[in-house]
Each structure stands twice: as C-alpha cells, then as structure tokens.
Amino acid sequence: MPGSPKTLRLTTAQAIVRYLANQYIDIDGVETRICGGGFGIFGHGNVPCLGEALYPMQDALPLYRGQNEQGMGFAAAAYAKYHLRRRFMFCTASAGPGTANLLTASALAHANRLPMLMLCGDTFLTRLPDPVLQQLEHFGNPALGLNDAFKSVTRYWDRITHAAQVIQSLPAALATMLDPADCGPAFIGLPQDVQGWTYDYPEAFFARRVHHIRRQAPDPVEVAAAADALRAAKRPAIIAGGGVQYSRAVADLTAFAEAHNIPVIETIAGRANLVHDHPLNIGPVGVTGSDSANWVAERADVILCVGTRLQDFTTGSWTAFAQDAQLIGLNAARHDAIKHLSLPVIGDAKLGLRALDAALSGYTAPADWTKSSQAERAKWNVYVADNTAHGNRPNSYAQAIGVVNALCGKRDRIVTAAGGLPAEVTANWKTLDIGTVDVEFGFSCMGYEIAGGWGARIAQSETEPDADTIVLVGDGSYLLMNSDIYSAALTRKKLIVLVLDNGGFAVINKLQNNTGQDSFNNLIADCPTVPEPFAVDFEAHAAAMGAVSETVANGAELEAAFKRAKASDRTTVICMKVDPYEGWTTQGHAWWEVGTAQVSDNASVRAAHKDWESSRAKQRKGV
C-alpha cells in the first residue's frame, strides 16, 4: 500500500536487542549508548531466543558472563551508580532459580533508586507443555508465577504476552529508568515461546534516538516559601544527599553554600559531594556520622535537604534534629520532598539550587554559626587522624581505611557495603575528589562489595582506565559472595580487594552486646554448633580464582602490599585480621531505633532496653 511504513520481521528477542542498541544519551555533548551491555547467565529459559538475538550484537552490547545472578544485579547497580544513572546494564537470567537469584539485587537497585533492566525467562504463554521444569504451580491462579515476585522490588514490571507489546513496553521501561523521580529497576518477563515469535515491527521503532534526562524546574511559590524560611534562619544547614550527584549539581551546591556561608553535612549516599578539606564541609551526619555534623544537625533551625530520602541512618531515627527544626525538601521525587512536614521544593537539584540562590540574594548565614560549625569539624578531624593511625594497638577497620586513604589516587573509587565497614568508611574517609565513594547502605546488602566493585570497574574503565576500584569487604560478606573475583580476573577488570577478617559478623555481635545480650551465633567462635572454630585461608581462596593475593599482619605491611597492588595490572586481594572488639569508631554516633526486648530474665538486657529507650523523647513524631 502506498505510504505504508516499512517493517522488519523479527522475533521478540531480536526486537528487544535491536531497540536497546539504538538508544543513546547526550552526556556533556557526547552521544553514548544508554545501555552499556549486559550481564548474563544462560539457561533453557533465555539461551534459545534471547541468546540467539544477542550473539550478532556483541560489539554494540557486550555481554559479561556472571557467576551468580545476584552478583550480576549488584554489578549492574554499581555500573549505573558510577554513571550517575545516565547509563545502565541489563541482566538476563533463565526461568526459575536463575531469575529468583535476581530478587535481592532488584531490591537493592530499588532502595538505591538505580536503573537496571532485567530480561528474564518465563513459562510458556500457551501452557501446552505445563507443568514445565522449574515452574511454580498455583492451582487457583495459573497466571501467577515466580516473576510476579518482582512486582514489589521494581519500578516497572511487565510480561510480554505478544510480540507487538515490545513497541510499548520497552520505551516505558526506559522512561522509568531515566526518570529523575521514579528511577529504579525495570523487569520484563519473557515467556519462552513468545521470545521466538515474530512480528512485523515498524522500522521507525529502531531508529537511533538520543535521550536527555529531564530537569524539572521548581514551582516559584515553593521556592519563595523555602527562601523565606532560610532568610529567617539563625542556624541554617544543608544536608547533601546522593541526588546532588545524580543531578550533577555538585558545583551548584558548592557555589550555593559558599555564596550564603551555610554549613554542609553529608548523607551516606551523599558522601563525596564535597572534598574533605572544603571549609564548609562539616562532615557526615547521622548514626554513622561525625560529632561535628551531628552537632550542626541538632542545633540547626532550618535545614535544606537536597537530594536525600532521609533514611534513618541520616536522621538518627528522627532524633538527630531539633523538634522544632524546619526542613526544606529539595527533591525531584515528591515522596521525598514532603517528609516530616518539609517545605517542599519539588524539582531538579541543580535548577532548584539556582532558583533558591537567586531568591536568597544578599543573604548569608550568621558568621558565628558557621565559624562554630567549622570549629567542631576541626575537632572531628583530630579524632579521625588518631582513629585511623596504626601502631601499637589492635588492627581495626579504621586503620585499614587510613592506609588506603593515604595511598590511593585522587580518582580511585571506593566500594563497600553492609556490616561494619559502611559506618567506618563514612566516618573516617577523607574524600579526595567528587563522586569517588560508593557506600551501599540504601539496602545495606552483604555481597554487594566485590560484585559491585566489578560493575564499577567496568564502568570506570570506560572513562577513567588509569584509576583503580578499591573494594573494602569483611570476611562475612566475602564468604557470602566472592565469585566475582574470578569475574574480574577473567575479564581483566582489575580490582584491589581488602578482606578485613574479624572472625564473623562482628558488627552485629557488637549490637548484640550493646543490647545486653551475650555473644551468640555471630562470631564463629561463639556459634554453638561449631565444635572447633577455624579461620578461612582467604589468601589461598582468592588465588584459586586468579587473583594475586597476600596476607598482611598490620598497617605497616598493608601499606607495602597496597603499593604493590597499585603497581600491578592484575586483580589483587589483600587479607588482614582485625580485632572484633577493639578499634571501632566510638564517636560520631546518633541514636538509632532498634527493637529491644521489653521483658527479659537477663538483667543486662533489661538495663540496655531502659537505656535505649531513654533517647526516644528526642524523636520527632512525624512533624
């Protein structure tokens, strides 16, 4: 028919791959493919059709073979975080347990608001061969399956039941992953028969398209109300969250703080918004923060919260701020901007800071307030210097952090997650350059460290190949997920991994003791089902996966080993035992709400409960 659009006859899987390969994003004037490739483990649910579609596209969409689907998802999340949510990776898994392994990673990406696309096998749409291998049968609901579990841990979910659906579903998934407010993981279930079904797709669907991240301008009325509150403030403060970096608003935040002489305190996700020696950087705030930032938070009367979801470790379970402090929520996401009766400024951080700056022309915070805040930071710096120094005392996380901090490059990327290391890194790390710290504490997910390091290194090698990715991991997380040491060695994506062995889950043992309980089932030595405890030979284990590895006895040996690792072009694992009881950072903490036993036969548990509850009076009740 004259004027009819040209079409291409493709399978569903081929259409998905071709579409992804033609989506680009403008980053600083350079058009780059949005999808950097994928992580995949093939099985019967994805290799016949999706595998066939990916094979000829290896140059455009490189596929990294994972060792564990959960690790693939962690790597994809770290890749997206490195690229400030402007690029993503897909993960493909077979039907059944392979896909189920992605649930934890999807939850991590959801909690951290990170884009990740999951293309996972599903049972046959026709149901002719049912029940099939690995199928979960729900007798009263045959349409319900494993993939439905992802609905609670994704921002976008769909199941392709006809090849034509791809035309609507893929752009919707991509729009979600690129949305500043709703960003998160997208899941697309691919029934095994539908993957191979064909459709005459319009050629226009596969045309090269360049995307841009939307910047929403804030409402002038909201800006005016926020500016009025700040002008009236006697003790203003800024909380800088991870959204500052995602908006690429670091320079604007710095300029705003400098123009108005307002102290800045950082969240865990916002670590590395300011370098450590910037005069307005008062330190990290909250449960795992600094005395200086918590001093500011407790006394501030107006707090501008930029790009943060105000997680409990930031707010001290809402005890870190004065009861009558007025919060201002500058955030692309309405849900975050209105928390605790904040004055909302809903919009992009960069545009919002610029609008507030114009509205506050001529205003500066009282000099004595800022000067006092800086004096508190100076005290904290003295504490950190002593805390991270090594010498005649037991090995600690803080000492290892101090060694790495002193020797690493300005653009080296630090990756850690879960256990005691997020607190120790957040409190003790001196940021050398903007956006170089990845402390995964949105989901606080054990196992992210090494897999996330691999994903971060893949991203880093695209733009900063001469920098290093440095992973700090405890023995507990290492034992949970370590196979991506092998992935890094195989793909020649060099990592430097520090395994800090404290004999178990020492930070939870500390919490157990702090709530009045005896040590039980956390440290290996305290497990009642372990007749004869013994240590893992992490050095030998890492070497078996292709890494250069060595064990050091103290900070001085760690210095020498780290220098060797920096000079090497191979993945290196350095192991050091640290004390499970001594050497924890004891300062800089805020109250954190945990459920303690209200009744117990143990007097120390009762005493701990009473002591814990004594701080509850400071907790804001949602206002």
UniProtKB/TrEMBL annotation:
<keyword id="KW-0786">Thiamine pyrophosphate</keyword>
<dbReference type="InterPro" id="IPR012001">
    <property type="entry name" value="Thiamin_PyroP_enz_TPP-bd_dom"/>
</dbReference>
<dbReference type="Pfam" id="PF02775">
    <property type="entry name" value="TPP_enzyme_C"/>
</dbReference>
<dbReference type="Pfam" id="PF00205">
    <property type="entry name" value="TPP_enzyme_M"/>
</dbReference>
<feature type="domain" description="Thiamine pyrophosphate enzyme TPP-binding">
    <location>
        <begin position="439"/>
        <end position="574"/>
    </location>
</feature>
<dbReference type="InterPro" id="IPR011766">
    <property type="entry name" value="TPP_enzyme_TPP-bd"/>
</dbReference>
<keyword id="KW-0378">Hydrolase</keyword>
<dbReference type="GO" id="GO:0102481">
    <property type="term" value="F:3D-(3,5/4)-trihydroxycyclohexane-1,2-dione hydrolase activity"/>
</dbReference>
<dbReference type="InterPro" id="IPR000399">
    <property type="entry name" value="TPP-bd_CS"/>
</dbReference>
<protein>
    <submittedName>
        <fullName>3D-(3,5/4)-trihydroxycyclohexane-1,2-dione acylhydrolase (Decyclizing)</fullName>
        <ecNumber>3.7.1.22</ecNumber>
    </submittedName>
</protein>
<dbReference type="InterPro" id="IPR030817">
    <property type="entry name" value="Myo_inos_IolD"/>
</dbReference>
<feature type="domain" description="Thiamine pyrophosphate enzyme N-terminal TPP-binding">
    <location>
        <begin position="39"/>
        <end position="133"/>
    </location>
</feature>
<dbReference type="InterPro" id="IPR012000">
    <property type="entry name" value="Thiamin_PyroP_enz_cen_dom"/>
</dbReference>
<feature type="domain" description="Thiamine pyrophosphate enzyme central">
    <location>
        <begin position="223"/>
        <end position="356"/>
    </location>
</feature>
<keyword id="KW-0808">Transferase</keyword>
<dbReference type="Pfam" id="PF02776">
    <property type="entry name" value="TPP_enzyme_N"/>
</dbReference>
<comment type="similarity">
    <text>Belongs to the TPP enzyme family.</text>
</comment>
<dbReference type="InterPro" id="IPR045229">
    <property type="entry name" value="TPP_enz"/>
</dbReference>
